[in-house]
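Subject: for your reference before the review

Hello V.,

The reviewers asked for a structural picture of the protein, and I figured it would be easier to keep everything in one thread rather than splitting it across files. Below is the amino acid sequence we used in the manuscript, unchanged from the supplementary table.
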Amino acid sequence: MDAVSYPNGTVIDFITERMVPLRVPSDAQPLSSQFRITWTPTLVTLDMYGTEHHRTVGFLPPEELVPALSLAIAKIDFAAESFNDAILNLDFLLNRYPRSGAAPEAVYLRGVSRYKSTKDAGMLKEAYARLTAEYPDSEWARRAQPYNLL
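And here is what came back from the structure prediction:
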C-alpha cells in the first residue's frame, strides 16, 4: 500500500482530516502481539480508548481504502451510540463509493443505526430492500433477510 494507496491524495486527505494514524511494524513487540498483527498490511481501527472496532487484512486500493476507513469510523460512532454521526459517515461512504466492497455492510449498518435512533422498524425493512436491490449477492443481504418479515 506504500506505493499505491498511502501516497494517494484522497487517502492522505481522508486520514489527515479524520484519523490519527500510527504505523507499527509487524514484528514490533508488544504492539504487534497485542493487536494480533500476523500479516501485512493489517489496518486496525481503534476508538479513543484503544478498543478495536474494525480490521482489514491485505492490500486495498485507494478506492477501497477510503470506504473501509469510513465504515470503521461509523462502527466507532455506532458503538458509542452516536447513531446520527454513524449515519453521516455511512452516507458519505454510500454517496461517494456505492460500488465499494464496504458498501453492503454500510447499507446494513445504516439501517440498524436509523432503527436505533428512531425505533422505527421500517428503517430495517428499507435497508433490506436496498440490499436486495443493489447488493443481492452480498452476505449483508442475507443477514438482513429477517427484516423483510417486519
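For the response letter, the relevant points are probably these. Residues 9-149 form a domain with the Serine Threonine Protein Phosphatase 5, Tetratricopeptide repeat fold (CATH 1.25.40.10). The chain is about 55% helix and 5% strand.

Happy to draft the paragraph if you're swamped.

O.
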